[in-house]
Amino acid sequence: MLSISTEHTVIQRTTLFLSLTLITLGSILCFLGQLPYAVLIASGLLFICCYFYTITKGGLHYLLWGSVIILSVGIGLYRPESFQYPLLFSVDSLHHNGKPFSLDLNWAKAVAGYGLLIWFYTRQKSLSLPKINPIHSTGMVILGVTVTLIAAIYLLNLEYQIKQPQYIWYFLLHNFFITCVVEEVFFRLVIQQKLETIANKQFKMQITIAKLLALSLTTLLFVLVHQLNSLKLIVVYALASLCYGLVFTFSRRLHLSIAMHFLVNAFHFSLLTYPL
Question: Which of 148, 139, 150 is nearest to 250 (CA)?
Answer without folding.
Answer: 139
